[in-house]
Fold:
Amino acid sequence: YHHGILKSQPFVVSKARDDGREVFIECRCYSNPACDAVYRDFPHPFKCKICFRLTAAGLEQEVMFGNKGADPMPVGVGFHTPLRIPFAGGRAGDYCLRLAVGDRVELDGRNLPTGRLLPLGERFARLRDEGLQVTECAAIEAGFTVRAIEADGRPFRGAEVRDLRTGARVFYEADDRTVYWTLWNDGGRVPYCCPEPQSWWTNAPNAPDPAARGFRTVPPGGRWSMKFRLWAE
Structure:
């Protein structure tokens, strides 16, 4: 999704409301034989809907695909989510990122998974424990399987950024559709880092065993969705 065909497809706002307690926005796009930009390369008619809900508790986001065709439709979703670091003053070294990673996935020269799983190593093991500095540091472009960490006494399948000076935290939580993380910091000299949740491994359709890497299809008339939540404490 995030590096795929929908980049060229316009979304339109189909619903919007603000009642003082909640801001809700729904955006939709459609692909069918009349939408040449998408259907020409991905010949499956579908509806895509993305909903954003902002309240005092944080931001919720959901993406949904509906298969409008007669054949099973492959669906893989990934979000290219930049988290600003620092987010409350101070320096990059005052912040650390924790992430629900399991094994590191070996990548080839094109940054595609080879299928080989590697130990996290000393550097990336910090993602599961005390946290890792991810801005104003060496470049990071890595792939990982997903394994929950603990946050405030409960299993957590996401990213946590902590300001070590004040204890302030930002959380980005993915649902159980996420099976792969890409972690990228754009060379390491920018004020953001991107923990990117993906519903299948990069290049999963071309893997020897696509299903083992999260590849899935939506049946004719079926729906599939994925949710995320972002909040601060």
Notes: Confidence is low (pLDDT under 50) at residues 1-8. The radius of gyration is 19 Å. The longest helix spans residues 121-125. The longest strand covers residues 46-55.
